[in-house]
Specification:
The chain is an alpha+beta fold. It has five helices and eight strands. The longest helix has 12 residues.
């Protein structure tokens, strides 16, 4: 489905990164999920855009699974940020090396910032059913 929407592109037999705008369109049209592309954001500012129940697909360097900065560059891998505060970010990273770096991994914002490319996709919380 992501290929059909253009969220993934195959080049030389390999999928190259996620293209955010078509991914957001796919979430909206296929699943009714509200999301937006976020660029040029600092890790310290994620808490300010955070709404309880939202999720943020953050572009980070894959070495975040080791949680030992500094990485050689930023970006190239996605993690799912599930909570953001002014001091810490909590995220899921299925490619982490152990449970502590896979589920509910937690890093200080200043450490997360060393891996973070300043871009991602903010997924809005699901609307509450009031009936």
């Amino acid at each position: 489905m992501a290929l059909k929407f253009g969220a993934y592109v195959i080049k030389d037999g390999t999928i190259h990164g996620m293209i955010y705008a078509p991914f957001v369109q796919m979430l909206s049209s296929r699943f009714g999920i509200a999301a937006e592309v976020v660029t040029d954001v600092a890790a310290r500012d994620l808490a300010g855009t955070w709404v309880p129940g939202s999720l943020f697909l953050a572009s980070v360097h894959p070495s975040i699974r080791l949680q030992k900065p500094p990485p050689p560059k930023r970006g190239g891998h996605l993690v799912l940020v599930t909570n953001a505060s002014s001091g810490n970010l909590t995220f899921h990273n299925p490619s982490g090396h152990d449970p502590a770096t896979q589920q509910n991994a937690r890093l200080a914002v200043k450490v997360f910032a060393e891996f973070f490319a300043g871009r991602g996709v903010l997924v809005s919380p699901a609307p509450q059913n009031t009936s």
